Amino acid sequence: xxxxxxxxxxxxxxxxxxxxxxxxxxxxxxxxxxxxxxxxxxxxxxxxxxxxxxxxxxxxxxxxxxxxxxxxxxxxxxxxxxxxxxxxxxxxxxxxxxxxxxxxxxxxxxxxxxxxxxxxxxxxxxxxxxxxxxxxxxxxxxxxxxxxxxxxxxxxxxxxxxxxxxxxxxxxxxxxxxxxxxxxxxxxxxxxxxxxxxxxxxxxxxxxxxxxxxxxxxxxxxxxxxxxxxxxxxxxxxxxxxxxxxxxxxxxxxxxxxxxxxxxxxx
Length: 267
Ligand SMILES: Nc1ncnc2c1ncn2[C@@H]1O[C@H](COP(=O)(O)OP(=O)(O)OP(=O)(O)O)[C@@H](O)[C@H]1O
Hints:
By secondary structure, the protein is of the alpha/beta class. The protein has a domain at 19-102 and 183-192 and 213-266: 3-Layer(aba) Sandwich (Rossmann fold). It is built from eleven helices and ten strands. Residues 4-13 and 260-267 have low confidence and may be disordered. GO terms for molecular function: ATP binding; ATP hydrolysis activity.
């Protein structure tokens, strides 16, 4: 068993380490209900982390807080050594965090490559993307991303004609195209079958190293294929952290996440 004890308070953040993100004792209080309750998490650069927890554990609230959509009542969010807790969302995005939601948000009438081109533009006004054209560096980056997401041969078809899984991969590609350092992926395998789920795991593994990736997902076979460290939340708090195998065998996790009691598990 190598699931760890709850993380302690993070203390002083050293910006010269490999640390990219530190969520430090964050509480989010919605009129007396603590969706996050002193939650802490650290992510090193170029790593992959999976976040799981039963419904209502606070996973979405955590992502909302990191990206600045929900405000921490107390605690801090430190990104690249700087306190981003009170910055507006657009400023947090500008500093290098991008979130992909569960439902694909591609522009259906535009081609796959044009969706990526728009995401790749530093100037995010889409009409500028068309007016100013694209430079060679952007074209090369987008070609790379098309390869990474496995859609190079679909580049010129309208995004609306892609299969469900392909739309999800395009949206992951769009997140990558923003040049974000930290990618937040909320249920990237939603609605996918086993083959697409495996391809998504391979895609995400290709991103790790160049990017830091935080994935929220419930699908155990997907988690096994990602082979990442897993952090388990429960009732807005840190519960456990460990390998997929350790988390899978953990009696406390089974009790809260799989809905089984310790007695049932060992009985
Ligand atoms: N704006 C809000 N006002 C009040 N309560 C909220 C608000 N947003 C979330 N909550 C509550 O906070 C808790 C955590 O919700 P959250 O969506 O973060 O959980 P989750 O782990 O993402 O759950 P799921 O897996 O079901 O998406 C839930 O009980 C939810 O009802």
